[in-house]
UniProtKB/TrEMBL annotation:
<keyword id="KW-0411">Iron-sulfur</keyword>
<dbReference type="InterPro" id="IPR001663">
    <property type="entry name" value="Rng_hydr_dOase-A"/>
</dbReference>
<dbReference type="Pfam" id="PF00355">
    <property type="entry name" value="Rieske"/>
</dbReference>
<keyword id="KW-0560">Oxidoreductase</keyword>
<keyword id="KW-0001">2Fe-2S</keyword>
<dbReference type="InterPro" id="IPR036922">
    <property type="entry name" value="Rieske_2Fe-2S_sf"/>
</dbReference>
<dbReference type="Pfam" id="PF00848">
    <property type="entry name" value="Ring_hydroxyl_A"/>
</dbReference>
<feature type="domain" description="Rieske">
    <location>
        <begin position="42"/>
        <end position="148"/>
    </location>
</feature>
<keyword id="KW-0479">Metal-binding</keyword>
<dbReference type="InterPro" id="IPR017941">
    <property type="entry name" value="Rieske_2Fe-2S"/>
</dbReference>
<keyword id="KW-0408">Iron</keyword>
<dbReference type="InterPro" id="IPR015879">
    <property type="entry name" value="Ring_hydroxy_dOase_asu_C_dom"/>
</dbReference>
<protein>
    <submittedName>
        <fullName>SRPBCC family protein</fullName>
    </submittedName>
</protein>
Length: 425
């Protein structure tokens, strides 16, 4: 019955409108999301500076999956299911730590940092340790951004995305950075509402006084017919500023122009480097750099802000002085974990090279504001009066692309025959 309902809702989705209420409120559809999206696609989970040295380990849960990510003795980064192969005890219990080997506290089965079982007492002469190593999880690092995939066969187009995005992210030297601060926020809404909220700035002017200090009002869409003559001239000047900035940055070897494949790739993504307002250096309240040490050898402090979005669960902002990464992990149909990390150059010293409050204040405020807004939407979706509403074609076109991607991936998993027939037609 649940799959029949899901297929009906997927087939009946009205383009240009928000999703039907069960997509945000149904525990059955949430379970389907975890199966078809979070257990099948590349999921952003952290950064290499989370585990900077051999033996460093971090853990996370994605639905029913417990994962550990470890840096091995050769400096490589690996992911495994965080489950002992003996009787299923969780191996690593802390969110972060440092180990020599991975030792199960239950019966001391011991695994090296490559996941091989190297010690298991009392198992008899015929026991083959080689058959009982940790179960690996696919992992890829995109210039220091860590993605995992829980599927047996992960989407192959990650390589295509990485080849395009690598030159954009590489100048920011994420692998040579450190995590200055990390913050977890549980938003009171379905993960899709969290992502939809991120994919538009229609709401920014009325709700984000801190964020709109460094960001231009015209950076993420506007309706020309709603502007007066002065505002149209400002929008024209902003367009010229974007074009001129792209030219300057790309002549300096810093890729900047927009790439967008949000709903025409399995591993959907979008990027563009945009100028910042004011002094134009960073996402801070005075728009000046928050960290004295730049992340890379940039030709100027005014490097704008490079945004990078991936489907289904991340967005990122890279400035000349610091970077901010965001991962969304669904908890249930009503709650989502938003994990934010601020990165600076690895040699930067708090209180000397950067003030932590200045570094994090814009996005700490913005995240709290967004969490409240997402909660309002979740509350509304649970009411009898909710029905899908129309997206603005000027300011919510990227929300529509997120929903297109989501519906397409869900149909590919649960309703593939009609999708194939539609493509053939």
């Amino acid at each position: 019955m649940a799959q029949t309902m899901l297929k009906t809702l997927l087939r009946g989705r009205r383009p240009g409108y928000s999703l039907d209420a069960p997509f945000y409120t149904s525990p059955e559809i949430f379970a389907a999301d975890m199966e078809a999206i979070f257990e099948r696609h590349w999921i952003f989970v952290g950064v290499e500076p989370d585990i900077p040295e051999p033996g460093d380990v971090m853990t996370l849960d994605i639905g029913r999956n417990a994962i550990l990510i470890v840096r091995d003795d050769e400096g490589g980064v690996r992911a495994f299911h965080n489950v002992c192969r003996h009787r299923g005890a969780r191996l690593v219990h802390e969110e972060k730590g440092t180990v020599g080997n991975l030792v199960c506290r239950y019966h001391t089965w011991t695994y090296n940092l490559e996941g091989a079982l190297i010690h298991a007492e009392h198992m008899g002469e015929g026991f083959d340790r080689g058959c009982h190593g940790l179960k690996p999880v696919h992992l890829r690092s995109l210039e220091g951004l860590i993605f995992i995939c829980l599927a047996q066969e992960p989407p192959a187009d990650f390589d295509q995305m990485a080849a395009a995005m690598g030159p954009y992210i590489a100048p920011h030297n994420i692998r040579d950075a450190k995590v200055a601060y990390s913050h977890d926020l549980i938003e009171p809404g379905n993960w899709k509402l969290t992502m939809e909220n991120n994919r538009e700035c229609y709401h920014c002017g009325a709700n984000h006084p801190e964020l709109t200090v460094p960001l231009f009002a015209y950076g993420f869409g506007f309706a020309p017919e709603d502007l007066d003559e002065m505002e149209r001239e400002q929008a024209r000047r902003y367009g010229c500023l974007v074009d001129d900035s792209h030219g300057d940055w790309e002549r300096a070897g810093i890729p900047s122009r927009m790439l967008e494949h949000l709903d025409d790739m399995v591993t959907g993504y979008r990027t563009e480097r945009l100028p910042l307002d004011g002094d134009g250096e960073s996402h801070t309240m005075d728009t000046r750099a928050a960290c004295r040490l730049p992340m890379g050898p940039f030709p100027s402090a005014r490097m704008g802000g490079l945004h990078f979005w991936t489907q289904p669960n991340s967005w990122h902002h890279f400035m000349g002085d610091h970077a901010v990464t965001f991962a969304v992990i669904p908890l249930d149909e009503n709650r989502s974990l938003v994990r934010t990390k601020w990165l600076v150059h690895k040699d930067a010293v708090e209180g000397v090279d950067y003030d932590l409050e200045n570094l994090i204040s814009v996005w700490m405020a913005t995240n709290a504001q967004d969490s409240e807004l997402v909660g309002f939407c979740q509350e509304g979706a649970r009411t009898a009066g909710y029905e899908p509403g129309p997206y603005s074609p000027h300011t919510e076109m990227l929300v529509e692309k997120f929903c297109n991607w989501y519906v397409g991936r869900m149909r590919a998993h649960f309703d593939p025959a009609p999708v194939a027939a539609a493509v053939a037609a």
